[in-house]
Structure formats: C-alpha cells, structure tokens
C-alpha cells in the first residue's frame, strides 16, 4: 500500500521550509513519541554515519533554512499529526498488539483503527522507504514529496525503536497506566518516551543533549556496544526489516517496561537505573539503522533494492 507524502511537490523547498519552520515555532509537544531529544539524537547519530552519496541526497532534500541538519526536523511528524491535512498519519506512529502476547505479527497487528492494512509504524517505514527509492528515478518529484518522506522515515525509525510504541492494545502502549515518576504524575508510556531521557539529562549531563549524544556515540564506536554495531545494520530486505525492529520492541516492552509495574505506583531509582541502558541502546540502534537505510536508498546499494511502487 502506497500512501501519503503527496501534499507538496518535493522540489518546492521554499514552501516545504515555510511549513516545517512554522510548525517548529508554533506546535506544542505531543505524547506517543521519543522526546524531542530522543528523536534528535537518533537523527544526529544517523547523519554522522552517512556515506557521501546519502549525505548529499539528505542535504538536497532538506529545506535550505535548516542548513542540512536532519535532526532539526526529526520531530516534525509529531508536530503535524493533529493537523487536518496530516491526521491520517496518527496510526503510523505505533503498533497495538494483543495484551500479554508479547509478539508482533504484521498481518495481525499492522492496521489502522478502521482496519486499513499497513497503517502502523512498521508499515510506514516500508512505505516511505519505497517512496525514497524513487529519488534517482527521474519522475520522483511528480509522484511523491520526498522531503516529507525523508522526515517521516527518519521519525518513524525512532518510533519503532521505542519499546512502548509496540505495546498492548488495552492500555494504548502504556498511556492509560497512570503512575508517578519520582515526585510527579506520569504514565508508563510517557516514562519511556520522555521521563527516562529527561532524568538522565538532568542527573548526568547537566541538561546538555550534545554531551549525552557524544557519550552514546563513544559507546557505539569504542565502548559498550562497539562489538554489536555491525549486527545492528544487518538487513537483507529494507521493506521487511521494520518487522524485526518492532518485534524487538515488543519483547523489550514485556521484559523491561511492563514487567513488575502496577497502576498508581511510584517508579524511581531502581526502575531508572535498570531501564536507562535499554533506552540509550534503542536510541543508538535507531540511528545506526536509519543511516543504513539512507545509505542503501541513496547510495550505490540502491541497485540492489527494488522499488515496488
């Protein structure tokens, strides 16, 4: 199913820039996503890993006003999802799975509220990947808005790595599990979206996102995850690998997010200390895999990837 990203011509960068920058200036933050910092770090990590051809394509697709910085617009899909024009994108940010099944089945779970197929975050990544594969095919600027497709792909790669974006149906991925995070009210989904990241920034990084990101990148290249990173990018088929990432997330949600948590309780140091490594790893995995997708879409690997639409 091909959908979306046809509202603006891909070549109309000035109009696209006006749209995205107006959104950034005016929109309030919304739930159901990595925090702004989480999405930005995923996109910064990815951009640092781009090969020359992919880096050039990304810069070419971004509005001039952001100076080639993909992370500046990685939160855009959250900020427009409640606009009438983009309301249809709401179901693309998450996947609801059967309660306590702790599995993801694409044919069973990837659908919208009305049953429309492919309307979930795994389907969205495959769809926008397919659109971006037209970048070198000449007619892309007529068929799809590749600027929007790039922003959606970059954002949804972050979403699919947030474990609670592949959560249980009855509690809306933890949104209806109310609790306290240290001394203030929150919910389980929000803890994984934002609270753990914000607490880490305040406790360890003097609220400096760049310092946090540099620590993550150090762990990627020389530290904790340096032996794992090559396997993170393994993907024989770009259009099916999002299912693998979603399966990882529901497994992590069951093992680390839902496990031992009860409505109304207070989560604090023990939960934070044990879950921060999971959140950090998923932010970095999202960045590594986004870079892999973009390198294959825009680089010489493109010849090995079929564009089905």
UniProtKB/TrEMBL annotation:
InterPro entries, per database record: PLipase_C/P1_nuclease_dom_sf, S1/P1nuclease
EC assignment: 3.1.30.1
Catalytic reaction list: Endonucleolytic cleavage to 5'-phosphomononucleotide and 5'-phosphooligonucleotide end-products
Entry keyword Hydrolase: yes
Residues making up the signal peptide according to the UniProt record: 1-33
Enzyme class: hydrolase
Domain of life of the organism encoding this protein: Eukaryota
Record GO biological process: DNA catabolic process
Keyword annotations: Disulfide bond, Endonuclease, Glycoprotein, Hydrolase, Metal-binding, Nuclease, Signal
Entry similarity comment: Belongs to the nuclease type I family.
Protein name as annotated: Aspergillus nuclease S1
Species in which this protein is naturally found: Urochloa decumbens
């Amino acid at each position: 199913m091909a959908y979306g990203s046809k509202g603006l011509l891909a070549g109309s960068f000035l109009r696209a820039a006006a749209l995205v920058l107006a959104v950034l200036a005016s929109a309030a933050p919304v739930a159901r996503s990595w925090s702004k910092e989480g999405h930005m770090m995923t996109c910064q990590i990815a951009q640092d890993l781009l090969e020359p051809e992919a880096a050039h394509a990304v810069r070419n697709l971004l509005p001039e006003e952001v100076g080639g910085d993909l992370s500046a617009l990685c939160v855009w899909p959250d900020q427009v999802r409640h606009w009438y024009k983009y309301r249809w994108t709401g179901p693309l940010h998450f996947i609801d799975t059967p309660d306590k099944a702790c599995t993801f089945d694409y044919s069973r779970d990837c659908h919208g509220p009305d049953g429309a197929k492919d309307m979930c975050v795994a389907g969205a990544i495959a769809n926008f990947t397919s659109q971006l594969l037209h970048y070198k095919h000449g007619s892309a600027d007529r068929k799809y808005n590749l600027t929007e497709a790039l922003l959606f792909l970059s954002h949804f790669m972050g979403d699919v790595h947030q474990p609670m974006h592949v959560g249980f149906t009855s509690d809306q991925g933890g949104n209806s599990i109310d609790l306290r995070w240290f001394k203030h009210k929150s919910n389980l989904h929000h803890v994984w979206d934002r609270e753990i990241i914000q607490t880490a920034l305040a406790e360890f990084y003097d609220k400096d996102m760049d310092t946090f990101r540099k620590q993550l990148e150090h762990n990627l290249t020389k530290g904790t995850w340096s032996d794992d990173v090559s396997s993170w990018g393994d993907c024989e088929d770009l259009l099916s690998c999002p299912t693998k990432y979603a399966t990882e997330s529901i497994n992590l949600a069951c093992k680390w997010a839902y496990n031992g948590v009860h409505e109304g309780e207070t989560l604090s140091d023990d939960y934070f200390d044990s879950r921060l490594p999971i959140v950090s790893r998923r932010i970095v995995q999202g960045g590594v895999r986004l870079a892999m997708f973009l390198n294959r879409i825009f680089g010489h690997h493109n010849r090995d990837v079929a564009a089905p639409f």
